Amino acid sequence: LDLAVSQEITCKIVIIGDSGVGKTSVIRRFANNEFSFDVATTLGQDFRSRLLKVGSNTCRLQMWDTAGAERFRSISSVYFRGVNGAIIAYDITNNNSFNNVKEWMGNFDQLVDAGVPKLLIGNKCDLKTERKIEKAEGEKLAKASNMLFGETSAKDNINIEHVFMKLVENMIDME
Ligand code: GDP
Ligand code: MG
C-alpha cells in the first residue's frame, strides 16, 4: 500500500504580445488541441488549464489570456499577479510584432520578479513564404534577454508542446 500522496501544484502562465500574433490560438492548441482561423474575442481575462505530470507530482497549468485587452494597451496588473512563467509572442510574418517585443518585455519586467522564467515564441512558422523575421533574429533577442526561445505554429501544431514543456521545466527548477 503506497500511502504517499502526490501533490497537485498550480502554476500560472501569462501570454503577452501584439494583437493577432496568435496568443489565444497557442493557448487553445496547448490546452485543448484545437485551432480555428476564426478566433472569437471575448473581452476580459480568461484562462484555460491543463494537467501535466511532473515527476511524481501533478501540475495544473493555468494559462491566462489577455482576451483582447492588449489592443488598448490596457492589461491590468492583476493579470501578472502571482505569475510563475511568461510567454512573449510575435508573428514571424509581422515586423511590428517583433519590434514590439521589447516593449512587452518592459511592461512585464515592471510588474514581475526578475527571476520568473520567460519564453519568446515566433508564432505562425507554417507561413514560410511570408516570413519577415529570421529564426536567428528571434534566437538572438531571446539570448540577449535571458529568455527561452522557439518558433511555433498553433495552426500546424509545430513545437507547441515542446516550448511549453521547456518553460514548465524552468518554472519547476525555480521552486
Ligand atoms: P491573438 O490576438 O494574439 O490572441 O491572436 P489569435 O489567436 O486570435 O490569432 C489571430 C489570427 O491568426 C487568427 O485568425 C488565427 O487563426 C491565426 N493564427 C494563429 N496562430 C496561427 C499559426 O500558427 N499559423 C497561422 N497560419 N495562423 C495562425
Ligand atoms: Mg487573443
UniProtKB/TrEMBL annotation:
Record's signal peptide: none
Keywords: GTP-binding, Nucleotide-binding, Protein transport, Transport
Full protein name: Uncharacterized protein
Species: Clavelina lepadiformis
Residue numbers of the full-length protein present here: 4 to 178 of 233
